[in-house]
Specification:
Pfam families: WD40. The chain is mostly beta strands and about 100 residues long. The protein contains no helices and 7 strands. The strands form 2 sheets. The protein has a 4-stranded antiparallel sheet, with no helix packed on it. The chain has a 3-stranded antiparallel sheet with strand order 5-6-7, with no helix packed on it. The chain is globular and about 45 Å long.
Length: about 100
């Protein structure tokens, strides 16, 4: 097996577990990364940052410190992203076919 370094997606971060989860779309055109600051960062197939959005708790009264993101998964058609959290909720975001 030959491995090839393509590039760095995110700059290095201090501390433990700054990247909570990573998912690659089935069509290999999107990559999603969940960071410790509860944001989702989306990259295209050229490893260019395309979008960034914040996750949210099951109820806003609990605040941002009440959960962490545990998993990410793309739908089979690569148009939706499901985000699993420790507050027993799964959010599904529609990303669409193109940027």
């Amino acid at each position: 097996m030959k491995l090839k370094y393509l590039g760095t997606l995110l700059d290095s971060l201090d501390g433990v577990a700054k990247i909570r989860a990573i998912a690659v779309a089935p069509n290999n055109r999107k990559v999603a990364i969940a960071t410790a600051d509860l944001n989702i960062v989306l990259f295209d197939d050229k490893l260019q940052k395309k979008d960034k959005f914040a996750t949210k708790p099951v109820d806003s009264k609990f605040g941002k410190k009440s959960y962490i993101v545990t998993s990410l998964v793309f739908s089979p058609d690569s148009t939706k992203l499901a985000i699993g959290q420790t507050d027993n909720i799964v959010f599904v975001y529609r990303l669409g076919e193109s940027w």
